[in-house]
Amino acid sequence: MTSFIGHDKAQRVFRQSFDKGTLHHAWILAGPKGLGKAGFAKQAAQFLLDSNTGLEAKNDGFDLNDQSQSAKLLAARSHPDFRLVQRGGKTDKEERKAREEGVGALEEHELKRNISIAQIRDLQSLFTTQASISTYRVVMIDAIDDLERGGANALLKNLEEPPKDTVFLLVSHAPERLLPTIRSRCQILRFDPLDDEQMRRVLSGIAPELDESELSALIAAGEGSPGRSLQYIDAGLAELEALAREIMRTGDKSNQVKSDLARKLSLKAATPRYQAFLARAPNLMAQHIKGSGGMPKSNAIDLWREASELASMASPKALDNQAVIFRLGSLMGSLAQRDERA
Prior knowledge:
Blueprint: H1 8-19, E1 26-30, H2 37-49, H3 69-75, E2 82-85, H4 92-101, H5 117-121, H6 124-127, E3 137-142, H7 149-160, E4 166-172, H8 180-183, E5 187-190, H9 196-206, H10 212-222, H11 226-231, H12 237-250, H13 256-266, H14 271-291, H15 297-314, H16 321-341
Parallel strand pairs: 1-4, 1-5, 2-3, 3-4
Helix pairs in contact: 9-10, 10-12, 12-14, 12-16, 13-16, 14-15, 14-16, 15-16
């Protein structure tokens, strides 16, 4: 049996609705990207597809049997009562790869820009017949934010006149941007960041090879979002953080550490590490400022603000990587110098 880690409130709300026989036909799973909304949707889908097996959960969560028929069919992407709608591959080759290995096997640049109206219309074949082996039919859209306008209107018809025993699980990173008519026909289930212990359990399960320093760095960098943390695993974030903290601690008056950091992140092959550091650097500075005593607050905030603006504009404006990292290092070093004067 497996249980979903975190989002206990969301699990409880969903389960209570099911147990009372008041399960809504459409749910918007709302929250920032990377919190585990898609993982929750897959668990909820299996729970519904398994609900006719007579197995009773022991708590308010899902407690799924990973050896059930539904679990095996979902893993093989062949459950007849389940549809997962996502952006497809740009080319025939990429689309074939997505069908064989799943959309997760494609890089962002290999995916189409939107979920098309044709993909929504293809769902009609699911609705014209009764469920094959389960009580429910489940449609998961990840993410509904990616629907083109025609697709959103086509989906709205299904939400207005929901097919019998069909549940829609709609992952949304920005629910406020959805059509009001779609939002009004769904129950919104909001997701909050995980706490550190939940993050530790999730990341340890996904990447058991991480050592304690790497795990702690990823937990801090993720700020409650496992998805964000996972983006940093290949970036060697622990090493980058160690260098940044040394600069903020010592000031690096010789510029040796700043130069080392800039050199490591200036090569084209280091682009993922560079992006990871840009995303993380302002937060590292904020943490240092909060932990320092006696520093003139306004001056520190000015340094943090300049670093945040530089990090946010570096990629869109194609600024020189080495120059950007060196400047960020200098701003970090200024924090140490102000600590000394405070």
